Amino acid sequence: METKAYAALLRGINVGGHRKVPMAELRALLTGLGLGGVRTHLQSGNAVFTAAEEDEEALAARLGRALEERFGFGVELLVRDHAYLSAVADACPFPAASLEGRQLHVTYFSEPVALANLASLDAAAYLPEEFRVGDRALYLHVPDGLGRSRLADVLAKRAPAPGAVATTRNWNTVVRLVELTAP
């Protein structure tokens, strides 16, 4: 059976010394699940691997159960294949090549973004910060970085996809995950 490359995007681990998931242990866990070519990127919960399975939700559920068994706490995560990651990067509505990685972010969602939740947002009030919606993704341009962004806080409170798993990566990581999952 042919394998396919995926990225697992773990949410909220290794932040401020909480919910620790050492990358070496994550690699061992994924390898133990029979996944191939396992690699991690940074300490913030990015893993790439190959698998014969094609159902991203089933893979995410399997990984989530294994993580909870191993580390004793639940970890929300998304699994996305190379084609999706590449399409999201290619569809970026902002001039990514002329921006620093810290100025551009993508929030990946498990479900489509509910545009109705964002319709009443006065986007002009947050300029020069801007956002655009993509395929289960929200692009956020923050010239002064995410930590200083007023718009990011407002978007998080409006829950663009209520009940969905959501996790954010800066542009450098977005590009690197595309590279790491490339055939």
From TrEMBL:
A Pfam family this chain is assigned to: DUF1697
InterPro entries, per the entry: DUF1697
Residues that span the membrane, as ranges: none
Name listed for the protein in its UniProt record: DUF1697 domain-containing protein
Organism in which the protein naturally occurs: Streptomyces inusitatus
Source organism phylogeny: Bacteria, Bacillati, Actinomycetota, Actinomycetes, Kitasatosporales
